[in-house]
Amino acid sequence: MNLPGDTIDVGTTRTPTPARYAPGGITFARLDPVFLADEEHVLPLVKDWTREELYAVAALFSREAGRRDDAELLALLREWNPTWEGSEPDAVKAEFVTDSNGGSVRWAVESYYIHRADGSVDEFEFPEEGSVDEFAEQDQRFTELLATRSGVDLPVHGAHLFVDLKTGEITVEGPHVL
Predict the structure, then answer these.
(1) 135 alpha carbon, distance to own chain's centre
(2) What is the pLDDT along the chain (178 residues), one digit of tens a residue?
(3) CA count, 13 A, side-chain hemisphere, 58
(4) In 3-state terms, what secondary structure has residue 95?
(5) Distance CA 164, CA 151 (A)
(6) Which pLDDT score, from 0 to 100, does residue 69 have?
(7) How far apart are CA 27 and CA 19, in angstroms?
(8) Kind plus residue range of the DSSP H or E element containing 77
(9) Given phi > 0 = left and psi -120 to 50 = alpha, else beta, which region is 130?
(10) Distances from the Cα of 130 to the Cαs of 135, 142, 153, in angstroms?
(11) Which residues lie closer than 8 Å to 145 by C-beta, 6 or more apart?
């Protein structure tokens, strides 16, 4: 396909030029995130879209980002709770309770509980093995993931967030925003 400004000169050797964006920001059948984040390029392409279409695309990207955050949170929780008894994990569910800090409600890192296979519930404590730096980095990411979840899925004070460590299912119980 010839792009505007391209010509074909028979008998002339051309040097390769850097890839240009085709209309829509598609290069090599893949959307370029740098292109999509550039208002100068993207806004003219969506100027005729309705608000509903814009919100639909925004919701799609938000859901995908949330799915990836949930997968990362699940992987981190599974890594922190690898205690096994036989073939079944000892820790089967993680629970977070909301905290009201300065009027805003968030999923609190400080109220993280582990539900065990025998039905007992314990407050989470970092494993004793591993370096302090390794856990500090993981704890920072863990805190960021819960903060992001609090900003996207606004929790209500008194709600409980459960993460099933086997299936990966994430549920909220208790009060809900109406």
Answers:
(1) 20
(2) 445 555 555 555 555 555 555 555 555 556 788 888 899 988 998 999 999 999 999 999 989 998 999 999 999 888 877 654 444 567 889 999 888 777 788 888 888 898 988 888 888 876 666 555 667 788 888 889 988 888 887 888 888 999 998 889 999 888 765 5
(3) 9
(4) strand
(5) 21
(6) 92
(7) 8
(8) helix 51-80
(9) left
(10) 7, 16, 32
(11) 69, 72, 73, 76
Closest of 70, 142, 74 to residue 109, by C-alpha: 142
- Token pair recorded at residue 70: 């949930």
| Residue whose pair of structure tokens reads 């960021």 in the numeric block | 144
Structure-block tokens of residue 169: 């299912």
Question: 106 with 146: CB under 8 angstroms?
Answer: yes
At 111, list the tokens: 């109220």
Q: What does pTM read for this prediction?
A: 0.70
Sign of the alpha-carbon dihedral angle for 134, 139, 144, 149: positive
